[in-house]
Amino acid sequence: MSEELLTAAEAARRLGVTTTTLYDWLGRSRIGALEIRGQKAVIQYFQGGARGQGRIRIEAGEVERLRDLMRVRPLHPAPVVRRPRIETWPGITVPLGRPR
């Protein structure tokens, strides 16, 4: 069963980027230099023509995979560790506080 093939313009629209940005991503992906949110990514696409200079087509599933890579997931903040209050200080031998 084959998936729907999208044009570069339609794929870019679904990703929320410009077509030129998508072309840049495809070029970076081809040489292994594409990172999306700090994670290496490879984009699989089709390019027709006798010498591979035809129109670019991307499967709809590949576009959804890229959207998932772009998704921001909230991180749980690290719990705040409160330091205990220091009741004694080195070299001080009298009780601290207001005089009585």
Tell me what the structure shows.
The structure is a single chain. The protein is α+β, with helices and mostly antiparallel strands and 100 residues long. The chain has 3 helices and 5 strands, in the order βααββββα. The strands form 2 sheets. The protein has a 3-stranded antiparallel β-sheet with strand order 1-5-4. A two-stranded antiparallel sheet has the order 2-3. Helix 1 (8-15) crosses helix 2 (19-31). The relative contact order is 0.16. The mean pLDDT is 89.
Outline the fold blueprint.
Layout: E1 5-7, H1 8-15, H2 19-31, E2 35-36, E3 39-40, E4 46-47, E5 56-59, H3 60-70
Antiparallel strand pairs: 1-5, 2-3, 4-5
Helix pairs in contact: 1-2
Proportion in β-strands: 5-15%
Mean pLDDT: 89
Radius of gyration: 28 Å
Structural class: alpha+beta
Q: Helix tally?
A: 3
Coarse morphology: rod-shaped
Unreliable residue runs:
none
**What is the terminal separation in angstroms?**
88 Å
Beta strands, count: 5
- Strand arrangement, major sheet: 1-5-4
Q: How would a textbook summarize the main sheet?
A: 3 strands, antiparallel
Task: Give a brief outline of the structure.
This protein has 3 helices and 5 strands; from the N terminus they run E-H-H-E-E-E-E-H. By secondary structure, it is α+β, with helices and mostly antiparallel strands.
Descriptive key words:
single chain, 100 residues, alpha+beta, three-stranded antiparallel sheet, two-stranded antiparallel ribbon, 3 helices, 32% helix, 13% strand, rod-shaped
